[in-house]
Amino acid sequence: MSSTQSPILSLAATAFATIMVGFGVNALVRPAHALSFFEFEPPAGAADRQMVDSLMAVYGVRDIFMGLAMYIALLFGTPKSLGWTLIITSLVAFADGAICWTHGQGQWAHWSYAPMILIVGGLTLRTSAPRAT
Questions:
Q1: Which helix (H) or strand (E) element contains residue 37?
Q2: Whole-angstrom Cα distance, residue 83 to residue 87?
């Protein structure tokens, strides 16, 4: 059972959760490809490459966690828990973009989808608000 009354919001939340899990699996399986979303090239040195691959694994696990948290909130939570989970996930995407921005590239790969997640989260919260009668 969905935690929101809107099938469109449920579908959007499911899509975002699936995308996050996909990003995470990609980072675990293909760290160099996942690094390309930050518009960086993998380092040439073996030790540096191993370090970056390890950090991409951390990033991948984080993304899988966020996707699973969305699925759990969608399936077992309330509209309020789903809405806040989506909003917090959008803030992570904004932060990733800000970090990229400080390095001069890659921010729009994150900032382009963060507002969509934020809007869906806000609309989901709105469905949890008590209605005036």
A1: none
A2: 6
Rounded distance, CA 3 to CA 128, Å?
9
Q: Which residue has the tokens 């040195």?
A: 45
For the record, the structure tokens of 18 come out as 């699936």
* Residue whose token pair is 């984080």: 62
Q: Which residue has the tokens 């899988």?
A: 64
User: pLDDT digit string (tens) for 94-128?
Assistant: 999 998 899 888 888 888 889 999 999 999 998 87
Query: How many whole angstroms from its chain centre is CA 65?
Result: 9
Burial class (CB in 10 A: 0-12, 13-18, 19+), 17: buried
pLDDT of 129 higher than 70:
no
